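Per your request, structure below.
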């Protein structure tokens, strides 16, 4: 990590206190929002370390799973821990792994005592607040939410307890991913016309007391969600409320709306070079990744 102290201050901690890595995980999960404002505007996501720190730390932006967990990984490595990234497939809504791309990133962390942990601060609405022991190890309670990891053949599955019982969140083979495979998955998520992170908007934040807030249009209408372990309140909102909601509820000021209703930044940029033209007729850029359908968001829906 290029500026560890700046990162620690960004997540609301004091470098002089020498926080534990578990405290860093929770602070990151509750201080940096999950958002796809760049890919939604057609701006590709860079996973270079300098770009991650410039965006999520210095500019106080958020990001999605690849950005969040690679930033956390660099901080934990700075703290002397071993970190292995692994690619996962989202299983929300009961979909099989054969229909989902490996579009999520999780971390296996090895502490100084050789114990292994499952870390993930990048699943948006429903991410882990604290690391959990790697592999099946019972039920883990975190600020009123319950998680467990179970085996399913050669994969591990993170599950969460909801009003209708236990539900799968994502699954992954417990093997480290090559950096090139992470880059390809990230490129698919942030550029492919079939990716909801290109065509849709999602912003979410978790709070230390277990509350969760989100704004998304994945179902068509723009919805504001406020969740707690006791239930979820869903409110349909108008698109012209997006800039104020981003600033007030998610700490993301400086955004507006373009004439097509899509988010624009302070530079007025609405779409990238492969999305220009009539909405719904996006052009596919030259780059890796198969043309396929069926991706779902890493947002815990």
């Amino acid at each position: 990590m290029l500026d560890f102290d700046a990162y620690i201050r960004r997540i609301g901690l004091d470098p002089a206190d020498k926080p534990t890595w578990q405290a860093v995980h929770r602070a990151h999960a509750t201080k940096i929002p999950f958002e796809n404002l760049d890919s939604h505007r057609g701006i590709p996501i860079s996973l270079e370390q300098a770009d991650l720190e410039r965006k999520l730390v210095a500019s106080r932006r958020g990001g999605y799973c690849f950005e969040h967990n690679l930033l956390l990984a660099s901080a934990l490595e700075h703290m002397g821990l071993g970190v292995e990234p692994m690619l996962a497939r989202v299983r929300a809504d009961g979909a099989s792994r054969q229909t989902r791309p490996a579009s999520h990133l999780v971390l296996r962390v090895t502490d100084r005592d050789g114990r292994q942990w499952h870390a993930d601060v990048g699943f948006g609405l429903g991410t882990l607040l604290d690391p959990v022991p790697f592999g099946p190890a019972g039920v883990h309670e975190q600020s009123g939410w319950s998680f467990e990891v179970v085996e399913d053949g050669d994969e591990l599955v993170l599950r969460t307890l909801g009003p209708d019982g236990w539900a799968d969140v994502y699954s992954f083979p417990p093997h480290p991913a090559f950096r090139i495979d992470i880059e390809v998955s990230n490129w698919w998520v942030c550029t492919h016309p079939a990716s909801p992170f290109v065509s849709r908007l999602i912003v979410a934040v978790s709070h230390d007391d277990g509350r969760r807030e989100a704004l998304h249009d994945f179902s068509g209408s723009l919805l504001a969600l406020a969740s707690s372990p006791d239930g979820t309140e869903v409110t349909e909102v108008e698109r012209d409320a997006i800039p104020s909601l981003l600033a007030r509820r998610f700490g993301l000021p400086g955004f507006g709306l373009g004439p097509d209703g899509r988010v624009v930044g302070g530079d007025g940029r609405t779409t990238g070079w492969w999305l220009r033209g009539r909405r719904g007729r996006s052009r596919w850029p030259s780059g890796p990744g198969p043309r396929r359908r069926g991706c779902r968001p890493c947002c815990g829906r």
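The radius of gyration is 18 Å.

Regards,
D.
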